[in-house]
Write a structure and sequence with these properties.
binds fe (ii) ion, about 45% helix, globular, mainly alpha, Ribonucleotide Reductase, subunit A, three-stranded antiparallel β-sheet, two-stranded antiparallel ribbon
Length: about 475
């Protein structure tokens, strides 16, 4: 079923058998390329970049690695192979055959889910478009572009569903996905974190670690969907997503490694001293972690949600790895929730279906912790006693029960005055941001070099050395 082909839009969905759909997508393609040229990586569109391109869904050899100019990247449509006889694995329709067409009663909800997922993909490309001009190395520059082109492909994946299954509404939504702009006050992207500026590499690594990981869990939940084309699309997207989180996890690991190594070597631990050495001090790393973790927590939606309950009930969106749960109906259970009331925390037992956002967030937090543990082991390996921690889920929230509530990183409720007085200890201050940006004003385009604030990676890409010329910049 997984075929490579030489059509304008590479695909394994037999696009050439459906002329109407093929024409519609070929008509969307120039708008997409125009968007990419306008909003994709600024200043590198004519460079040859050593990129991975999805060409099939075969587990061995699904991708091809070669130099390509980004606007010529072959963004394709690939669905994981169908599982014969697949049935809905949860909710009220449990055990019934999955849907190959959109059930009328779920049409609007499904479209909304797909558009919301789709909107995040171009948004992140827009957020990251200036980063190439401050890259710490050519290796990192290439990884940035790899993430960017694959987010572009994820947009294609969602647009394919919109065009195939949602008729005219779907085509209009596909157009609108190219019209909104991250951070634009008049036509912003749909979700908060995707309108935040991501203009320095510390933010980029935090984004790919925390925000792309929200993507992973949303995709895992959608991969359970009773709407089979959505399940199959998202399953394949997860393959690419893994690399994005690798970029974030190893990026931060290398920053922590470099800082801790120099702390040990120079026997210094004061941020001012470390900044003089061109390093990112650990308290500043903690603040960026606090920011991107909490922005990403918000993406899971409210703790108590009737929408989440109905997505689950109708079989549209499950839990991550639904098969690991015993009870797929989730009608009887409750979830013990901490709810803020009049300045105190009260416990409330919430019907499980209404707590599905929180269940997914639990899995996410656990996954984040595993990465942070690795960073901490790297710091400890240099004999430095400093531990990065995930802040409380009550801290710095803008969605759900803790929106409008002030809490410190430990989760203690505090007054607004206390928050104002201390927030610069917990989140990047203007001075921190200015320092981090200042550290990165000069990009590193020589493959043999690495910025002062980050250790080199352990290995290069696809068997190439670390100092390989992954991007041939400015040679056009
Ligand atoms: Fe994505
Ligand atoms: Fe991603």
């Amino acid at each position: 079923m997984s075929t490579v082909n030489s059509e304008r839009i590479p695909n394994n969905v037999h696009l050439s058998d459906d002329k109407r759909l093929q024409r519609a997508l070929e008509a969307w393609q120039p708008s997409y390329i125009q968007w990419w040229r306008e909003m994709g990586p600024s200043g590198f569109q004519e460079d040859d970049v050593f990129l991975r391109t999805a060409i099939s869904v075969d587990t061995d050899g699904w991708a091809n690695f070669d130099y390509v100019k980004m606007p010529d990247y072959r963004w394709g449509i690939f669905l994981a192979d169908a599982a014969p006889g697949r049935t809905i694995g949860f909710g009220d329709n449990m055990g019934q055959p999955v849907w190959q067409q959109v059930p009328g009663e779920h049409r609007n909800t499904l479209r909304r889910l797909i558009v919301t997922q789709g909107d995040t993909e171009p948004a992140s490309v827009e957020q990251q478009r200036m980063l190439g001009q401050s890259c710490p190395s050519v290796y990192d520059l290439r990884n940035l572009f790899q993430v960017n082109v694959e987010e572009g492909r994820h947009l294609w994946a969602m647009v394919y569903l919109l065009h195939s299954y949602f008729g005219r509404d779907g085509r209009e939504e596909a157009e609108a996905l190219l019209q909104r702009r991250s951070g634009d006050p008049d036509k912003p992207r749909m979700l908060g974190a995707f309108n935040e500026p991501c203009t320095d590499w510390l933010s980029f690594f935090m984004f790919t670690f925390f925000t792309d990981r929200d993507g992973k869990f949303q995709l895992l939940a959608l991969a359970e969907s009773g709407f089979d084309p959505l399940a199959r699309t998202t399953r394949f997207m997860l393959t690419e997503e893994a690399h994005h989180m690798f970029v974030g996890e190893t990026g931060m690991l290398r920053v922590c490694d470099r800082t801790a190594q120099m702390m040990a070597e120079h026997k210094k631990d004061q941020p001012e001293d470390l900044r003089k050495l061109g390093l990112i001090d650990l308290p500043t790393i903690q603040k960026y972690l606090n920011l991107w973790f909490t922005l990403s927590l918000d993406l899971f939606g409210g703790e108590i949600s009737s929408n989440a309950a109905s997505f689950f009930a109708s079989g549209l969106k499950g839990r991550a790895k639904e098969e690991q749960f015993e009870d797929h109906l989730a009608l009887a259970g409750t979830y013990a929730m901490d709810v803020p009331k009049d300045g105190r925390i009260e416990h409330e037992d919430v019907p499980l279906r209404n707590a599905m956002n929180e269940v997914l967030r639990d899995a996410y937090v656990e996954d984040c912790q595993r990465g942070v543990d690795k960073w901490n082991r790297t710091i400890a390996a240099h004999g430095i006693s400093f531990e990065l921690t995930l802040p409380s889920r009550r801290f710095h929230r803008h969605i759900g029960l803790y929106a409008g509530v002030y809490a410190d990183p430990q989760g203690n409720l505090i007054s607004r005055e206390q928050w104002e007085a201390r927030k610069d200890e917990w989140l990047p201050s203007d001075a921190d941001k200015a320092y981090v940006r200042g550290l990165m004003t000069r990009p590193v385009y020589d493959p043999k070099q690495m910025a002062s604030w980050i250790a080199p990676p352990k290995q290069g890409i696809k068997g190439r050395p670390v100092d390989f010329e992954y991007v041939r910049h400015g040679q056009a």
